Amino acid sequence: MENVFIVNSTLVTKLGKSSFIRYLPTIIFSDLLIALISELSREFKWWKVKNPIFPKLATDVSFVFGPFTILNFWIFKLTYKRFWLYLLTNIFSDYLFAYPLTTIAEKLIVYKMGRMSRMQLFLLGMAVAIVNYIFQFLIVEPLRKGKYNDYK
Length: 152
Prior knowledge:
single chain; about 150 residues; mainly alpha; about 5% strand; globular
């Protein structure tokens, strides 16, 4: 667990301060959205996390605030303002997550899929990616550029 933290910290520092600050609101929004979906997964039995860090939470905190967060930062840094590249990158990463990585996680007894199919998991990941892009484009960027100052 400590190694994951060290690797994630190192990767965040490579983003650069301006990219970190620029995309942080969207990443926080996305992490909260994934945490909410994870909590819903318990009620709807979409998947079950084995041995979560916080047993009362359905959310795998180490994943949501670890590799998912870092990958999200990097995808935004490398693809933002090029929607089709952003979409293709997310198709690739969500496919990897839904199929081979989920199979590996199930074999390692990290989590187990329930009523949600891998295709539904893939589509959910794509929906979250599109919502994230819209959030960055319509809310974060105008605020960052001061376009809402006229409404004070």
